[in-house]
Design brief:
By secondary structure, the chain is mainly alpha-helical. The protein contains 2 helices and no strands.
Length: about 80
């Protein structure tokens, strides 16, 4: 019984130590400013739309071509 209670005590002790270490590390992080955050967010949004449009355009070309090739091979 004592071994079980010791394991529970050690478990909670480890959780508390982990949270303390995490908090210490978060204080060392160099957080971006508001302007940098907004500009990088805009870059990500523009990149997502660009690559989404690009993949859509490629799909418009490749899909009919692949359907044609597959239909020719299945004859």
């Amino acid at each position: 019984m004592m071994g079980f209670l010791q394991k529970i005590k050690d478990f909670f002790k480890n959780i508390i130590e982990f949270l303390r270490d995490t908090r210490k590390e978060l204080n060392n992080v160099s957080w971006p400013g508001r302007r940098e955050l907004i500009s990088t967010t805009l870059v990500v949004i523009v990149a997502v739309f660009f690559f989404g449009f690009f993949l859509w355009a490629v799909d418009l070309v490749v899909s009919p071509t692949m359907n044609y090739v597959i239909s020719r091979l299945s004859r």
